[in-house]
C-alpha cells in the first residue's frame, strides 16, 4: 500500500482480527476486565456475603441527583435483589470473562452493570467520561469483537453439536 501525498486520508486502514497480536491483545483485555469484575464480586462476597448493604444504602441517599426518585425507590424496594445481585453478578461476569465462556452474554450483563454504575454516579464530578464509562466501553468492545473466541472456552463451545444444531447460540458465545 503506497502513501498518497495528495490525500493522506485516502489510505485504507485495516484492522485484521486474524492477526496473532490482535488475538493476544483481545484475550488479555478480556482476562484483565474479567479479573477486575471477579475481584470486585469476590471481595464483596467475602466481606458481606449476600448482604451487600452498601448498594441499597447508596441508592437511598441519591435524592438530589439527576435521576430523581428512581434510585431512592430502587434502594428502598429492591434492596435484597441488589444486596445479592451485585456481588454474585460481578463474580459470575468476571469468571465468564476470565475463562472465555459465554463472553457475549457476560459482557452484556457487564455493560448493564456499568451503565447502572455510570448513571448511578450521577454527580459526574470528573465529567461524563469516567472509569464507569470506560468499563462500559470495554464490555461493549468484548461483545462486538467476540473476544471469547480468542484463547477462550467459547472457541471450543462453538464446535459442540448443540451449537452446530442451534447456530443462534453463537450469539451468546464469543
Automatic annotation (TrEMBL):
Source domain of life: Archaea
Keywords linked to the UniProt accession: Cell membrane, Membrane, Transmembrane, Transmembrane helix
Subcellular location(s) per record: Cell membrane
Signal sequence region: none
Membrane-spanning ranges: 20-38, 101-121, 133-152
A GO cellular-component term linked to this record: plasma membrane
Membrane-protein topology: Multi-pass membrane protein
Name this polypeptide is given: Thiosulfate dehydrogenase [quinone] large subunit
Coarse class of the protein's main subcellular location: membrane
Amino acid at each position: 500500500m503506497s502513501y498518497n501525498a495528495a490525500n493522506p486520508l485516502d489510505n485504507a486502514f485495516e484492522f485484521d482480527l486474524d492477526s496473532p497480536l490482535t488475538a493476544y491483545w483481545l484475550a488479555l483485555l478480556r482476562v484483565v476486565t474479567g479479573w477486575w469484575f471477579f475481584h470486585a464480586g469476590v471481595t464483596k462476597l467475602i466481606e458481606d456475603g449476600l448482604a451487600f448493604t452498601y448498594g441499597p444504602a447508596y441508592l437511598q441517599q441519591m435524592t438530589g441527583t439527576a435521576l430523581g426518585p428512581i434510585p431512592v425507590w430502587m434502594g428502598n424496594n429492591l434492596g435484597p435483589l441488589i444486596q445479592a445481585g451485585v456481588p454474585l453478578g460481578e463474580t459470575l461476569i468476571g469468571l465468564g470473562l476470565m475463562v472465555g465462556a459465554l463472553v457475549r452474554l457476560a459482557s452484556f450483563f457487564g455493560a448493564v452493570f456499568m451503565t447502572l454504575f455510570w448513571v448511578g454516579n450521577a454527580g459526574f464530578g470528573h465529567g461524563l467520561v469516567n472509569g464507569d464509562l470506560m468499563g462500559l466501553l470495554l464490555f461493549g468492545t468484548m461483545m462486538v469483537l467476540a473476544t471469547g473466541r480468542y484463547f477462550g472456552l467459547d472457541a471450543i463451545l462453538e464446535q459442540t453439536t448443540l451449537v452446530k444444531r442451534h447456530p443462534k447460540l453463537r450469539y451468546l458465545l464469543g
